[in-house]
Design goal:
The protein has 16 helices and 20 strands. The strands form five sheets. The protein has a five-stranded antiparallel β-sheet. The chain starts with a strand and ends with a helix.
Length: about 475
């Protein structure tokens, strides 16, 4: 899949490597889009990847003295949605992050990566543009700051130069006392859905009168667009039903959607008005935060497991490189895997075939493993990332012939049909019960939202998890 894989120990180090051959080298962080695109042959020119996930302090969320939020390039969607700072001062981004993929995808995928992929259907771009965010791009020549609304040229096209790395996302912090903000998305299912339409809005309100408005629309044009006529109309007005309805009509006029496999252009136009009216009505009734979970399911250890110290020097993985890792509490040295995914390493090199290969696209969840305390889709994780990592597969869950209470509950409740999805389901449910020992049924559904059961046995799976949580683990 690639010839060279570098694990950088600093941004400066990564930039130096990138500058040598930016046409055939790129940065990998979450990798949830990039790995899939490489598999599908969309980057035939790429020969080298530079992994920045071991660089310290790139996963930080902070606020500075000028009241600006800063989001590092390794901040994942799960980190963003669970951040008190983002929930308070950039709420639409928390909402959008919650609706990206499934928990395993959100544990890997980064906000920065979602911006750089530059799809008009991506969920975090509309809220960040509505929030007036800027990004910082760094190269060996220096840094430059670009307003996000000026960053996009078209579908998957941006102003980023090939030798640049996105090193910061800057958001002017909202004041919840004077701002109303939110995000809505409509897709074909509740999880793992690409947006048919998504939108974000930020209103500044004084004495019930809107003094500033931002309304951005996604999946209805080649880039994220602003509904400028609707924004202008709202300023100086209050959120009455009549004003909301007219603003929704004006927002509808801003879009020029296409018809595709997910929806017709006419349906998308209809949805713009529906979602705009729905979001503004939530603002009027102070209901925009009601559906956001108080305790979102992350499928991650709390506190997070450390990934280990950064390498003292750049690690270069090629076909001859040995990967040293810990799998199911056993230290291993794995040869001939540096050019593959973690799924291939587990199945083809170590014969841990309990980790199933289903879609190989991060859609079905059959390949789920626990990676440094987080549930991930192993088909989208590059194998060199296993270096010095701690990984748990289904083979390491039980003790000899003694099953865990959860595994036993799956048997007793008939939650196993063909069994293909079961290993991934069990690992996600195990992580859920460690994170939330007494989960609600909604939390259970969120935990398994990244899994497809080919036998349609979800009710029994939910019952098994509910029953085991009622017993001592």
């Amino acid at each position: 899949m690639w010839k060279q894989y570098y694990t950088a120990n600093s941004i400066e180090n990564a930039l130096q490597i990138l500058s040598k051959d930016p046409s055939s080298t790129t940065i990998i962080a979450g990798g949830t889009d990039l790995i899939l695109e490489i598999k599908n042959g969309k980057h035939p020119h790429l020969t080298s990847l530079i992994d920045i996930t071991r660089i310290p302090n790139l996963d930080q969320i902070s606020i500075d003295d000028q009241n600006n939020l800063h989001i590092g390039p390794l901040v994942t969607h799960n980190q963003a949605l669970s951040s008190p700072l983002i929930q308070k001062h950039a709420f639409p981004l928390a909402q959008a992050s919650w609706q990206v993929g499934a928990p395993q995808i959100r544990n890997c995928g980064t906000i920065a990566g979602n911006l750089l992929t530059a799809s008009p259907a991506n969920d975090t771009i509309p809220p960040l543009i509505a929030l007036n965010a800027s990004i910082v791009l760094s190269s060996i020549s220096g840094t430059r700051t670009i307003p996000l609304k000026e960053f996009y040229l078209g579908v998957r096209r941006t102003y980023r130069h090939p030798d640049e790395i996105l090193t910061d996302i800057i958001i002017p912090a909202l004041d919840p006392q004077i701002h109303k903000s939110g995000f809505l998305k409509f897709g074909l299912r509740n999880a793992q859905a690409i947006a048919i339409v998504n939108l974000a809005a930020v209103l500044k309100i004084k004495n019930n009168i809107i003094t500033k408005a931002s309304l951005t629309l996604g999946s209805v044009a080649p880039i994220i667009i602003s509904a400028t006529k609707a924004e202008t109309f709202l300023i100086g007005r209050s959120l009455t039903p009549q004003n909301i309805q007219h603003a929704a009509h004006l927002a509808q006029q801003a879009a020029f959607p296409i018809s595709d496999i997910r929806a017709s252009a006419l349906y998308r136009k209809h949805l713009i008005a529906v979602l705009t009216e729905r979001l503004l009505t939530q603002f009027a009734n102070n209901q925009e935060r009601q559906t956001f979970p108080a305790e979102p399911v992350l499928l991650a250890a709390n506190p997070p497991q450390p990934i280990g110290p950064p390498p003292s020097h750049t690690l270069t993985h090629d076909p001859r490189t040995l990967i040293q890792t810990t799998i199911n509490q056993e230290s291993l040295i794995v040869p001939n895997a540096a050019q593959s995914t973690l799924l291939d390493l587990l199945r083809e090199q170590l014969y841990l075939t309990g980790t199933k290969e289903g879609c190989s696209e991060g859609e079905c969840g059959a390949c789920t493993v626990i990676f440094n305390g987080k549930a991930v889709m192993s088909c989208l994780v590059p194998a060199p990332r296993a270096q010095d990592a701690h990984i748990q597969t289904i083979e390491g869950l039980s003790s000899g012939d003694t099953l865990t209470p959860l595994q036993q509950a799956f048997i007793e409740n008939g939650a196993i049909q063909c069994g293909y999805c079961t290993p991934g389901m069990v690992l996600s449910a195990t992580t859920l019960l460690e994170e939330h020992p007494h989960p609600t049924q909604t939390q259970i559904k969120h935990a398994i939202s990244g899994h497809l059961c080919r036998c349609t046995g979800y009710y029994k799976i939910i019952e098994a998890i509910e029953n085991v949580e009622k017993q001592p683990l």
